[in-house]
Each structure stands twice: as C-alpha cells, then as structure tokens.
Design brief:
By secondary structure, the chain is mostly helical. It is built from 19 helices and six strands. The chain has a two-stranded antiparallel sheet. It has a two-stranded antiparallel ribbon with strand order 2-3. The longest helix is centred in the first third of the chain and has 26 residues, at 86-111. It is globular.
Length: 475
C-alpha cells in the first residue's frame, strides 16, 4: 500500500512540474500556433471574397440590385432566400470566416510580444485596424438583416447570442471607429506585407476609417440627421479617401485559390448562369453612358440585357466582359467615388461641408469613369438627364451612385433601399415593386437553434419579414 501511495505522489509531483516546465517552454515572442497577422490577412480575403462573390448560395446582391439576372434557374432573381439557405450562409461567411478570424487575430496580437518593433504603437495600430475592418463587416450585416448578434457575438461559451438593435449597433460602430481612427499613428507602421489592402500604410487606414464614418453617417441621414451630420463632418475633417490612390482595394491573383470569386462563378464554373439585367442596361442605354463598354459586351452591335427575373437565353444577350470576369479583377471595399457620392448627398441635404453637392456629384462621376478607364465624363455630366439638379437631387444622386456601384451588389441594393431610386423591374414571380424585399430574413438555423433570441429579434424589428424595413429606411 505504501508503494502505491508513493507512486501516486511521484506522479502528481511530475505532472505539476511538467505544467511548470510547459509554461517556461512557451515562447510568447514566437507563438507555435498561427500568428495574428496571418489571421488578419485571411480575414481580409474572406471578407472581400464574400463581398465580391456572386455565388447564389451566399451572395445574391448583384441580383437584388438588378445589375445581373439569371439565365435558366431564376429562383434567386425572384428573391427566393430559403431554398439555398442563403441567410444561413451569409451568417457563416461573415461570422465564422471573417469576424472570427479578426477576433482571433486581435487576441493573438494582444498577447504576442514584438521585440523587433521600434515602437509599441505598431501593435496598437494593428489592433485599431482590426477594429475598423470589424466595423465595416458589422455595418454590412446590419444593412442586410436589420438586427444581428453583436455584443454577445463570437463568444464560444455562448452559442445562443442575443441580437442587438441595428440603431444601437450603428451608434456603437461610430464610437469604435472614432476611437480607432484617433488611436492610429501614421508615423508608425502596422502589418506591412500582411495587409493586402493598404500594404501596412497606417495613414491610408486613417483615411479608410474617416470614409467609414461618412458611410455610417449617411445611412443615418433620415433616421438621425444630427448624428449623421456630426459623423460625416468628423470624417471629412479627419481626412478621407480623396483620390483613386486612396481606394480600399484587394488585389486578387490569377491562380486558385486566390482569384476573384466572380471568375470562379462566371468562368471557372463552366456555367452560363448570369448576364447583365435589362434594368441597368436599359437605363445606361437611355443615358448613352460611356461606361457600358466596361460593364457589358455587345450583342449584335448593341447592349442587350436579359429581362430581370425571367429566363433569358445566354446566347441572345450581352455578357459580363472579360475585364470583370478576369481572375485578378480587383476586390472593392471603399472608393473615393463612393465617398464623393455620400458627400454630395450630405451637401444636398443641407449638411455643412467644405464644398457643394454639385461639386461632389461631379467628382464622384469623374472618379467612377476613371476607375473603369472610360473617357467622356465631362460630356456625360453636361447631359440634361445627368447634370446635377438640387430640385431632383435624390433621384440624380441615387441613380448615378447605383450605376457606379456596378459589381458591388450590396451597396447598389442599399442605395435603392435608402433613396428609392432607380425604379426596379418586376420579376416574374412578384406583382409589384412594393413586393421587392427590403431586407433578408434571419437564418433558418437561428429560428430552430436560437429560438428565444430569434423571437426577441423578430419582435424588435417589427417582424422577420422581407418587407420589414431596416431602421434607417424611413421613407
């Protein structure tokens, strides 16, 4: 018996020593697991992949905005979200693929020592940039669903997170973006080559953060004009995206798995599922918009879009041009043109800004032409149907913004929801424009696995319906 007790005591002592030695063996300066910087890089890619994708299982916003339509299977162009569990997949790609990586990157970077960094500000910059990218992702989630898990999200010990109201999330995002921008120091570095958007240039992230303030602010313009004006003014005063050199772009490569998802969906799939929709083609034809050469191919000498939401033979219409469906077509997060459109709208609403609505509007269109490598912006702006009109500011700005957002489905869809222009076509299985969804319903899995919080969220927004407006969609 004494021998048994002795053995047990020795084993206990050995285990205790082993735990202590393991602590000494852990190199906090060089963690054995993947480092935070690599997770940040991956989060950038997965987020941009989701934004860029036109896969009908996970991103149908190019269809919702009526930029593209489907040729054969038209369920998604008729706003069928449930057959493919699209909402569930959106949750998965934002939360599990992007936001979770950002959280893990934040944790690892916080815990890691960087003896070779010249200043602790480098680590601080990295953490602030994570905050900016996280805010960007959460704004998109709110703009899709209206209410989402936020304060309790991404906690592995809480698999049933509560939902937060969209207006509450927006206000917190503004506060967090403001703190992140204020904390960034342009004189210090950040991620270097691990940053696939700005190459570690902290000053560019400051501009991005200020642009994000403007983007958040303009969405609040009808809901809370005072907060919108203050937020936009802060973004302008802080210095925002001012030229194409400031655009937040993701450089895709020509080889798998690092090519643009549009290439995967349009070319590599070997399928002919998408063509430009007659909605945008007809509008741009009526305006004789020179950007058609960049947006569509010719069919028998003209630009011809497929009837939105109806079967449209692939061989009888214009197609997506090679430049957009190329494997290395740029992923787009935020651009100077986008910011100029938001500032045009803010000025048109009477917000105090350094320039006029007309000047911002003209610059937005010129920047869009330049982005697509198309000439003729000045002549286009001189057209009676295009030139700025304060009396018709909402229609003019919304239409041109929607055209400029081509390939950026969610932003185009949001423009239509916020400003009610342009007029969209009626798909085959709906009866009138009022039946076009103005939000996505919550994931089916949430209804079954997180029912109590799902029910609370549904009540919070006024019903989990396609017709329930996002909080900022006042009119």
């Amino acid at each position: 018996m004494k021998k048994i007790v002795t053995v047990i005591m020795l084993l206990a002592a050995f285990c205790a020593c082993t735990d202590q030695f393991e602590e000494f063996n852990e190199d906090k300066k060089n963690p054995a697991a993947v480092n935070g910087e690599a997770l940040f890089t991956n989060a950038q890619k997965t987020l941009t992949d989701q934004i860029s994708s036109t896969n009908v299982n996970r991103n149908i916003f190019k269809l919702c905005a009526q930029y593209w339509t489907e040729t054969t299977y038209t369920d998604e162009a008729n706003y069928d979200l449930t057959t493919r569990n699209i909402s569930d997949n959106i949750f998965r790609y934002y939360y599990r693929e992007s936001l979770k990586d950002l959280l893990e990157a934040e944790t690892l970077i916080t815990e890691t020592e960087y003896p070779n960094d010249p200043s602790p500000q480098v680590k601080a910059n990295k953490l602030h940039i994570i905050e900016l990218l996280r805010a960007y992702a959460f704004q998109q989630l709110v703009d899709i669903f209206g209410s989402v898990p936020y304060a309790e999200a991404l906690n592995v010990e809480n698999v049933y997170p509560a939902y937060d109201a969209g207006n509450v999330i927006y206000k917190d995002l503004i506060a967090k973006v403001t703190a992140a921008v204020d904390g960034l120091d342009a004189s210090s570095g950040s991620y270097g080559s691990a940053d696939l958007i700005y190459g570690g240039e902290t000053g560019q992230w400051i501009k991005f953060g200020n642009a994000l303030k403007i983007k958040l602010g303009i969405s609040l313009a009808d809901y809370d004009p005072a907060l919108a004006a203050a937020t936009i003014q802060a973004g302008v005063n802080g210095g925002t995206l001012a030229s194409a050199a400031d655009d937040a772009l993701f450089a895709y490569l020509t080889a798998s798995p690092n090519y643009n998802p549009i290439y995967a969906d349009v070319i590599a799939s070997g399928r002919h599922d998408f063509i430009p929709a007659n909605t945008i083609v007809d509008i741009m034809n009526n305006l004789e918009d020179p950007r058609r050469t960049a947006y569509f191919t010719l069919y028998e000498g003209e630009y011809k879009g497929g009837a939105y939401g109806y079967g449209a033979p692939y061989g009888s219409h214009s197609h997506i041009p090679d430049a957009i469906s190329a494997p290395n077509f740029t992923g787009i997060l935020l651009t100077c043109s986008e910011v100029q459109f938001y500032l045009a709208e803010a000025a048109a609403r009477g917000f105090s800004l350094p320039s006029t609505a007309e000047a911002y509007y003209a610059e937005a269109i010129k920047s869009s032409f330049a982005f697509w490598g198309v000439d003729g912006a000045d002549a286009y702006l001189a057209k009676d149907e295009v030139k700025y009109s304060q009396a018709a500011w909402k229609e003019r700005i919304a239409l041109q913004q929607w055209i400029a957002f081509y390939t950026r489905g969610l932003e185009g869809y949001t423009t239509w929801r916020r400003l009610d222009y342009p007029r969209l076509n009626i798909a085959e299985l709906i009866r009138e424009e009022s039946e076009i969804p103005v939000r996505f319903t919550f994931p089916v899995n949430e209804q079954t696995l997180n029912k109590a919080n799902y029910d609370a969220a549904s009540q919070l927004i006024g019903g989990d319906l396609l017709a329930t407006k996002i909080f900022w969609d006042i009119y």
